[in-house]
Design a protein that fits this description.
single chain, alpha+beta, Thiol Ester Dehydrase, Chain A, six-stranded antiparallel beta sheet, 2 helices, elongated, hydrolase, PaaD, Acyl-CoA_thioesterase_PaaI, HotDog_dom_sf
């Protein structure tokens, strides 16, 4: 399971379950910023993709209301990053997720996102 944007960036969807998702990606040369580390937009996109898969895992379409990311450590070319999304709140219309973006056991970034849960598809 993936989408065209994820495939373009080299994201691999490892697992999706109710309210959770796990993606991995290797930092490639085209993902680097002018300092030689992974671009913040690449890191954000990986976390956002995990957020999207987790928030849409319950059969009801969900669209983002807000998202926030904190960057803690750099990632470099060749690093394999893992984005693990976990549901922290599930309401009737709104749900919130936290995504831990790690390199091995090192926390690289922490993402929090909230979605609006639409009616189930017929």
């Amino acid at each position: 399971m993936t989408d065209a944007f994820c495939a373009h960036l080299g994201f691999e969807v490892v697992a999706v379950g109710e309210g959770q998702a796990r993606l991995v990606a290797r930092v490639r040369p085209e993902h680097l910023n002018l300092h030689g580390s992974a671009h913040g937009g690449f890191l954000y996109a990986l976390a956002d993709a995990a957020f999207a898969f987790a928030s849409n895992s319950r059969g009801r379409p969900a669209v983002a209301l807000s998202a926030h990311i904190e960057y803690f450590r750099p990632a470099h070319e060749g690093d394999v990053l893992e984005a693990v999304a976990t549901e922290t709140h599930l309401g009737r219309r709104v749900a919130t997720y936290q995504v831990r973006l790690c390199k091995d056991t090192t926390l690289v970034a922490l993402f929090t996102g909230t979605v609006y849960r639409m009616e189930e598809r017929a």
